[in-house]
């Protein structure tokens, strides 16, 4: 489903496993919608999610995206029932979960994961692919793949280690223990905890803050922070300085600084 503030968009895309809603503050809200399976990440769901993100990336009326699930589960993992009988050649040749690479590589707009309930296995990995995580106080994070005789395969070993450090990541991956929202915030996995019932609206409001800024500048800032996970400090600092200089080639930098001097709100035009 694809809705604009509750109304179905005319050039609507039909999705069966997600709901996409465009809010008036230039925020797109994507809700994972397989409640009976606790939003387990089946191939059709992941294909729809990646498709929707690419549509929203190309939609100039959208400045930021929120990805959420239900109060019980953000996503309880990759779909175990779908995976259980697959052979090595099937997962290898069909590049199981390969479509998710596009989430990190192709989406320049900020994406917030608003996590209530379980974010386990692929669900925790999906949340970590987003730019930051806001957690409901009932959130539970974990990488329990070890209990199923497998390991995380959508970035869990890498992103969790970078987010919470080796010791905690190793413990969670090797024991399958879940961590609650308070522990996740303490260890840096989530940026903030919000009452569960307020979580989605708080995430939409936070996304709206970002959507009101210059979109190319927001994307540049996102690119710089992401580079911190890929480069040496010297390379990262060089990239940041070059991209900082590049912002001076935009009208929005001129407008932002002029508005400050004029004591008025800036009118960003995204160029
Ligand atoms: C990335 C590469 C590697 C693999 C990564 C992974 O993510 S591996 C996965 C890592 N994740 C895990 O190992 C967590 C697996 N899940 C659990 O341990 C529990 O569901 C729970 C503790 C999250 C909630 O317990 P609860 O007693 O409150 O609820 P409940 O248990 O009654 O579930 C309700 C329904 O949802 C269904 N369903 C749930 N999850 C999945 C799933 N991932 N898949 C499919 N289905 C799933 C469940 O079968 C049931 O349907 P049924 O049978 O009635 O038709």
From TrEMBL:
GO biological process terms on file: fatty acid beta-oxidation
Domain of life where this protein originates: Eukaryota
Keyword Lipid metabolism recorded: yes
Keyword Lyase appears in the UniProt entry: yes
Listed CDD domains: crotonase-like
A Pfam entry, by short name: ECH_1
InterPro entries linked to this entry: ClpP/crotonase-like_dom_sf, Enoyl-CoA_hyd/isom_CS, Enoyl-CoA_hydra/iso, Enoyl-CoA_hydra_C
Gene Ontology CC entries for this record: mitochondrion
EC number: 4.2.1.17
This protein's UniProt keywords: Fatty acid metabolism, Lipid metabolism, Lyase
A single GO molecular function term of this UniProt record: enoyl-CoA hydratase activity
Residue stretches in coiled coil: none
PANTHER family: ENOYL-COA HYDRATASE, MITOCHONDRIAL, ENOYL-COA HYDRATASE-RELATED
Family according to the record: Belongs to the enoyl-CoA hydratase/isomerase family.
Family matches, as NCBIfam families: PRK05862.1
Protein name per Swiss-Prot or TrEMBL: Probable enoyl-CoA hydratase, mitochondrial
